[in-house]
DNA sequence: AGAATAGTGTCTGTTAGACATTATTAA
DNA sequence: TTAATAATGTCTAACAGACACTATTCT
C-alpha cells in the first residue's frame, strides 16, 4: 500500500461548570509543535494499552485529571494537511463532562493543566485548531442539553433541582422554566429522589441522584425552541 | 514517538430508496483480507489528493458509482485490535444518501458494486464489522428522519409530496401523516414549489425541488414520538 | 359519473412556557 | 412574622396525530 498513513490523534474537550461558568480543561504542551501553548488533552493511540479510541480518550484524561469523566462521547473527526505543521493529520475529538469538585483538587496539583472559562478563550492562543474544536463541542453540548439531561453529568452525586437548573442555564446561556425541568426530571425516570433534603436559605430542597446504570434519556422535543 | 500508528480507513454507508426498499451500496473486495466478500466502499486517505476525510469518502464513492452523493455526513469512528486481521485499526464511517436513478446506470456497469436491501443483509456475510456499521448508520438515518427533511436527498431533483412520504415511511418503517409532512415542508423553507405538476392517476401533484444552497433544517420535535 | 390521488380544515393530544399560588424553612 | 427558596396548579401556545372533507384529474 503506497499511502502515507496520516498522523492520528485523539483529543478531548472536557467541560465542567463552576460558579455559573462553563469551563474547559486545557494543558500546556510539553513538546513541539506549539511548545508551551494551551491545548486540549489528548495524544496518540497506544495500541497495546487502549482497547479502542474511547479508552485512549479516557486514559489521556485520567493522566491529566486523575479522574474518569462522568460522560464521554465522540464529537467528530477533524482532518487536513494544514492543521498540524508536522503534516497531514486526523484527529478524533471527544467531548466529556465532569463535576467540578471531582477533579478540582487533582487539577490544582498538576501545574500544566488548568480550567479556563469558555468565555475567556478569545484571550488565549490555542495550539492547532483547538479553539475551533472547542466551539464545535460547545455547540453540540448546547444542542444536546435541549433534548436530554446530559448536564446532570456536571453535578455531584447528590444534587437539587435548582443546581441542575443552574448548570443547564449556564450551558445554554438562557433561562429555563423550573417547572419544565421538574416535569422532565419526573418523566425521564433517570433520577432517584433521596431520603434527604438540603438547606438552601428557604424551604429544604429535595436531593436527587442519577439512578445506577441509568441511560441518558432523549426527549422528543427541544426546550427553548424560540430564539430570543 | 514510540507508538505504532494504527491503520486508518474511511468507509461509507451509501443508502438509497428504491421500490419502497432501503438499500445500501456494497462492493466486492478485490484483495485480502475478506477477498471476494461484500464490504462497504472505502479505503485509505490519500494525503496528496484528499483535502480531508470528507474528500476521501467522496472520492471512494465516486470511484464506485461515478456520482457524488446528495448528502454525506460523518457517522462515527469504530476502532479496536480485533476488527481487522491485519492489526489494530481505526475506521471513520460516513453515511450518505443518493437518489436511486442518479447512480443506477453506473452501478450496473460495475459488476463489483451492488445495491443490497437492508432487510436482506442477514443473508450475507459482510467483511470486517461492516454489518454492525450499517446498523449504526441505519439507526442514525432513522433518528434524523424524525427531526429533519434528510430523506429529501434520496429523491430526484423534482419530486412530489407523495414521493417524499414514501421515502420517509420506507426509512422509518412506519406510516406518517401526509398532513404533518406538508406542514413541515412548508415550515422548513427548504423547498420550492415548481411551476409544474405531475400526473399520478388522480389529481395532478405539485412538484417541488430543494432550493439551491438550502441547509438541512432541524425541527424542534420528533415525528412519531409514540411506540406502536 | 366514479375512481383515484392531491390538498385543506379542524379537532384532539401532548408537552413546553408563563406565572400565580401554596409550602416549608431559617432568622 | 418575614424573607427566601421549593414545589405545585393551571392556563396558554405550538405543533403533531387523526381523519373528514373538498378539489382535480383520468377513464
Provide an overview of this structure.
Chains A, B: It comes from Chitinibacter fontanus. Chains A, B: Residues 6-142 form the Nudix hydrolase domain. Chains A, B: This is NUDIX hydrolase. Chains A, B: Keywords: Hydrolase. Two copies of one chain form a homodimer. Chain A is of the alpha+beta class and 228 residues long. Chain A has two domains: 7-146, Nucleoside Triphosphate Pyrophosphohydrolase, CATH 3.90.79; 157-210, Winged helix-like DNA-binding domain superfamily/Winged helix DNA-binding domain (Arc Repressor Mutant, subunit A, Orthogonal Bundle). Chain A contains five helices and nine strands; from the N terminus they run E-E-E-E-H-E-E-H-E-H-H-H-E-E. In chain A, strands 1, 2, 3, 4, 5, 6 and 7 form a seven-stranded mixed beta sheet that branches. A two-stranded antiparallel sheet of chain A has the order 8-9. In chain A, strand 1 and strand 2 (21-28) form a beta hairpin. The N and C termini of chain A lie far apart (54 Å). Chains A and B meet through strand 5 of A and strand 5 of B. Chain A binds a DNA duplex (27 and 27 nucleotides) through residues 160-162, 176-180, 182-184, 187, 197, 199-206, 219-226.
Amino acid at each position: 500500500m503506497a499511502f502515507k498513513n496520516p498522523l492520528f490523534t485523539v483529543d478531548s474537550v472536557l467541560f465542567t461548570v463552576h460558579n455559573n461558568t462553563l469551563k474547559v480543561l486545557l494543558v500546556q504542551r510539553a513538546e513541539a509543535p506549539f511548545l508551551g501553548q494551551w491545548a486540549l488533552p489528548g495524544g496518540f493511540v497506544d495500541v497495546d494499552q487502549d482497547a479502542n479510541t474511547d479508552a485512549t480518550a479516557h486514559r489521556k484524561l485520567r493522566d491529566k485529571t486523575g479522574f474518569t469523566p462522568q460522560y464521554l462521547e465522540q464529537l467528530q473527526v477533524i482532518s487536513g494537511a494544514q492543521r498540524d505543521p508536522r503534516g497531514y493529520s486526523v484527529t478524533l475529538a471527544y467531548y466529556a463532562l465532569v463535576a467540578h469538585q471531582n477533579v478540582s483538587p487533582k487539577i490544582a496539583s498538576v501545574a500544566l493543566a488548568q480550567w479556563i472559562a469558555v468565555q475567556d478563550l478569545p484571550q488565549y492562543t490555542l495550539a492547532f485548531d483547538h479553539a475551533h474544536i472547542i466551539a464545535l463541542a460547545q455547540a453540540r453540548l448546547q444542542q444536546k442539553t435541549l433534548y436530554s439531561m446530559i448536564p446532570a453529568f456536571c453535578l455531584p452525586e447528590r444534587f437539587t433541582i435548582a443546581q441542575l437548573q443552574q448548570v443547564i442555564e449556564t450551558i445554554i446561556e438562557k433561562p429555563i422554566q423550573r417547572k419544565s425541568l421538574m416535569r422532565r426530571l419526573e418523566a425521564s425516570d433517570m433520577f432517584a429522589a433521596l431520603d434527604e433534603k438540603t438547606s438552601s436559605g428557604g424551604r429544604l430542597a429535595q436531593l436527587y441522584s442519577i439512578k445506577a446504570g441509568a441511560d441518558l434519556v432523549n426527549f422528543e422535543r427541544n426546550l427553548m425552541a424560540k430564539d430570543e
